[in-house]
C-alpha cells in the first residue's frame, strides 16, 4: 500500500508534461485527475495490481501464520541437537507459590537435546506406551497412560489399569519396562538440573507423568482436546519444570503435532523426533500448545518435576 501511494503522489510533481497539460485545472481537482490518468497507464496499473497481489498474499500468509502459530523453528526434526538452551525472563507465577531457593526458577527458559536419550531407548519406551495403550485408548484423538496412577484412557473415560487388569498386568509390562522408565527419568532430571544450574536432588518427580498417543480422530470429550494453549503450572499446579520426551518423528510418523512456544509475533516450534527431550520452566513464560495432528500417530511422554518435596512422587514400580 505504501509504495503505491508514494508513486501516485510523487509522479505528478516530477512530471512536467502532466503539469503543463493541467494548467487550467484548479489545485483542488488536479491531484485526483492526475492520479486517475497515471492509473490509466498500463505499466502502472500492472505494478499497482502486482503490489496489491503481493500485499494480499502477505496478509494471507501472516494470518495463516498467526493461526498456525508458527514463526521460527527451535529444533527441526532432521537435525541432531547436541544441547540448545534459550533463556527467557521468568513470569511472576512462581511468586504465588512457596519458594524453594536453589530450585524454584530464578533462571527460566527452554532447552532441547537429542543426545541424552538414544533412538533405541526411545523405541523401547515407545513399546511400553504401545503395550499399555493397546489395552484401551480414547474414542477421540488423544489417549494417555499414566504408569504411576494407573490411569488409562478407555472410550470416553479413564480406568485404573492396575485395578482393572489386576495381576494380568504383569503379563503386559515387565520389570525392565519400569527400570527403563526410572533411567529415563533420571537422565531427564540431570539434564534439567544442569541447564538451570540447580541441584538434581532438589527436583522431585511430580504427577501427572504420562505417555500420550495422539492421532487425527476427532475429539469426543474435553480430554481429547490437547491442542489448547496452556501454562503447565496453571494446568497441573505442582509443575516447576516440564519435560517432554518424544517417541516418534514429525513428518515420518505423523503430520501436524508440532510443539509451539507461544510468544507475541515470535512463536517457536519444536518438531518432535524420537529421543528428543524438550524441557522448560512450567510458568507462563512458556505458554505453549500442540498443533493438531493431521495424520499418523504421535507418541510422547510428559515427565515433570516440582521443587516442593510435598508434591513429589516415587517412580512407578512394577505391580
Ligand atoms: O506432547 C507435547 O508436545 C506437549 C504436551 C503438553 O503440553 C503437556 O503435557 O502439558
Ligand atoms: Fe503442557
From TrEMBL:
Similarity annotation: Belongs to the OGFOD3 family.
Species for this entry: Nomascus leucogenys (Northern white-cheeked gibbon)
Domain spans labelled Fe2OG dioxygenase: 207-309
Cited InterPro entries: OGFOD3, Oxoglu/Fe-dep_dioxygenase_dom, Pro_4_hyd_alph, Pro_4_hyd_alph_FE2OG_OXY
Topological type in the membrane: Single-pass type II membrane protein
Name of the protein described by the UniProt record: 2-oxoglutarate and iron-dependent oxygenase domain-containing protein 3
Main subcellular location of this protein, as a coarse class: membrane
Keyword ATP-binding: no
Cofactors demanded by this protein: L-ascorbate
Amino acid at each position: 500500500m505504501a509504495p503505491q501511494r508514494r508513486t501516485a503522489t510523487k509522479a505528478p510533481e516530477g512530471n512536467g508534461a502532466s503539469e503543463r497539460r493541467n494548467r487550467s485545472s484548479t489545485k483542488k481537482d488536479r491531484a485526483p485527475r492526475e492520479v486517475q490518468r497515471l492509473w490509466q497507464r498500463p505499466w502502472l496499473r500492472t505494478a499497482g495490481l502486482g503490489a496489491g497481489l503481493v500485499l494480499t498474499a502477505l496478509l494471507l500468509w501472516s494470518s495463516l501464520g498467526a493461526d498456525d502459530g508458527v514463526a521460527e523453528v527451535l529444533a527441526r526434526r532432521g537435525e541432531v541437537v547436541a544441547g540448545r538452551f534459550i533463556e527467557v525472563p521468568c513470569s511472576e507465577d512462581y511468586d504465588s507459590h512457596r519458594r524453594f531457593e536453589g530450585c524454584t526458577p530464578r533462571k527460566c527458559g527452554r532447552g532441547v537435546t537429542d543426545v541424552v536419550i538414544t533412538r533405541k531407548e526411545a523405541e523401547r519406551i515407545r513399546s511400553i506406551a504401545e503395550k499399555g495403550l493397546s489395552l484401551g485408548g480414547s474414542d477421540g484423538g488423544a489417549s494417555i497412560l499414566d504408569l504411576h496412577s494407573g490411569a488409562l484412557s478407555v472410550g470416553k473415560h479413564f480406568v485404573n489399569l492396575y485395578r482393572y487388569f489386576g495381576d494380568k498386568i504383569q503379563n503386559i509390562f515387565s520389570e525392565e519396562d519400569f527400570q527403563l522408565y526410572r533411567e529415563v527419568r533420571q537422565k531427564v532430571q540431570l539434564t534439567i538440573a544442569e541447564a538451570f544450574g540447580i541441584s538434581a536432588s532438589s527436583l522431585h518427580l511430580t504427577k501427572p507423568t504420562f505417555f500420550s498417543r495422539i492421532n487425527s480422530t476427532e475429539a469426543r470429550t474435553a480430554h481429547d482436546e490437547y491442542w489448547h494453549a496452556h501454562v503447565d503450572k496453571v494446568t497441573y499446579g505442582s509443575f516447576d519444570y516440564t519435560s517432554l520426551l518424544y517417541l516418534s518423528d514429525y513428518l515420518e510418523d505423523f503430520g501436524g503435532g508440532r510443539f509451539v512456544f507461544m510468544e507475541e509475533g515470535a512463536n517457536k516450534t519444536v518438531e518432535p523426533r524420537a529421543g528428543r527431550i524438550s524441557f522448560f520452566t512450567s510458568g507462563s513464560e512458556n505458554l505453549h500448545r500442540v498443533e493438531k495432528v493431521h495424520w499418523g500417530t504421535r507418541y510422547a511422554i510428559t515427565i515433570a518435576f516440582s521443587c516442593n518435596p510435598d508434591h513429589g512422587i516415587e517412580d512407578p514400580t512394577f505391580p
